[in-house]
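Encode chain A's predicted structure.
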Amino acid sequence: MVTSLRSRVAAANTWVADRPPPGPFRAGFWRSPIRGPWLTSVLGAVLLVGLPVMFATGLLSYLAYNPWLPGNDGRHASGVLTFVPFHWPASPAWGYRVTQGLHVTLGVVLVPVILAKLWSVIPKLFVWPPVASPAQALERLSLFLLVGGAMLTFATGLLNIQYWYRFPGSFYVLHFYAAWVFVVSAAAHVALKIPTMRAALRERRVRDELRTPLAGTTPEPYTPNGLVSARPAAPTISRRGALGLVGAGSLTAFVMVAPQTVGGPVSRLGLLSPRGGYDPGGGPNDFGVNTTAGEARITPALVGGLWRLEIAGGPSPIVLSRADLAAMEQHEATLAIACVEGWSSGNQRWRGVRLRDLATLSGVADPASVHVESLQDGGAFGRGRLAGNQIAAGDSLLALQVNDADLSLDHGFPARIIVPNNPGVRNTKWVKRLTFET
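Encoded structure for chain A:
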């Protein structure tokens, strides 16, 4: 009886396998003569270098928010790494600008490579029957996680740098977990495919293939259930041309996104770096912002003569006007604002009161953190915590001026936080309260 059942199942599987639906599920659909292990392996080798760097810089970006401080991880809503005993350093001042700029730039540059890699293996996504055995089911699931994780990671990242936030949930949660799924799946995939990859790269030298024109382009040897078509069409592009096309796409992406990290006048060349239509105009405050005063619902009345800064945490709260702050010892720091979207304002000259002096004034001489609150009502955009080492840094300021002029309303007038090596969102604008905590 068992033998009979197995025979029936085998017959059913054969019947299904012999009747694929029309279109991409049929073996003759994919006929490109350049698709094969070699091209896939070359693209995979590029990703093998780029993805670990992108993932590492992404983790550094997460840690830069000091998720171990109460309330800070709410922006990411993940809590995965809050146990890490790592205090984000306040030096070098350009650290976050470089690491996050590299993360975003490399992510955009790798998009053509990811798409080409997906094209090179797309027949594997349309295998028929979809599930022929438990082992194949596991393989298909891992492939789904790999491709799905890659698409979600890159898609959310690209949408974020365009300031398109209409996600079905938090960008940070989607991007964070999609990246983990993608990287873990990719690591498992690489472990399984390294022998195939090494064999393919040994059979054809990259230098030789880059010298082969269209007329000399031939398919790789056919193997059942592989990437090489059983009935390849005549070539319309060489492997050299395909790699050149991918390289040109990556170079174009680099030129369009990298200038935003440099900042200053060069940032205007970054065509993939919109600032939400914001025009800072001319003068000392002529550099980019993510959120304008209008978007944050900050009006001149809120920051006028009645504005006061409350400093708490010590024996009793202290209330200061802007004139009181201006009368205190002023310090100047040359720092850039660097944001999670990868853009930088370029170095600006800030002037204001050191945070450590305000901590001493409050009666908390050696604070472990400070809770910064803004007039802006917007979750993590309006509040957050800085660590003790950031408070102690000599260039950490409650800034009143920039480039020898008062802050503009869009740049945080009457007072804003500016801390070296700090994500832009943590350089809170329109500050209303500082609570120093032990």
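Residues 257 and 273 are 6 Å apart (CA to CA).
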